[in-house]
Amino acid sequence: MKRILILLCIVLLITLCLYNLGKSIFVNTDLTDFIKEPKENTPEQLYHDIALTLLAPHIDIALNNYYGEPTQYGLYDTNILDINRPNGLYKFDVRLKVTPFVGAHNTIGEDVITFRISSGEVIFLDFVHLKDYPRLQN
User: Fold this and answer.
1) Which domain CATH number covers 97?
2) How far is 115 from 124, CA to CA, in rounded Å?
3) 83 in a structural domain
4) Which domain holds residue 52?
């Protein structure tokens, strides 16, 4: 009786695994789920990308000042954490999470950078280093 119960559990486990494997292979054949680009060019996604593109030179300066060397990052991997309008005017505080790397995408840290954006100017407000990653030696 014990053997039959164990055998039934094994068969049930294998059946569930095969069912889920088949479901992921045959139902989710759209590979765009694995790409970091938006599925659609929604206005929100376009605004997000425009904002990051305009902030890119300022992100570069903040990262280079902190790390003391030229670093790279991907706009595709940069997240806008929040945007606030402190005075209700056309002045915005933007917090970004950036993951800089060197070389062939060797991540060296995680950082949160805050900028104030107003008409015609971007002001650096804050840099918070969240995490270090070990650097690979050549």
Assistant:
1) 3.10.450
2) 5
3) yes
4) 41-132
pLDDT at 6: 55
**Cα torsion at 72, 77, 78, 82 (round to 10°)?**
-170
Q: Is residue 118 part of a domain?
A: yes
pLDDT in tens, 52-102: 999 999 999 999 999 998 899 999 999 999 999 988 789 999 999 999 998
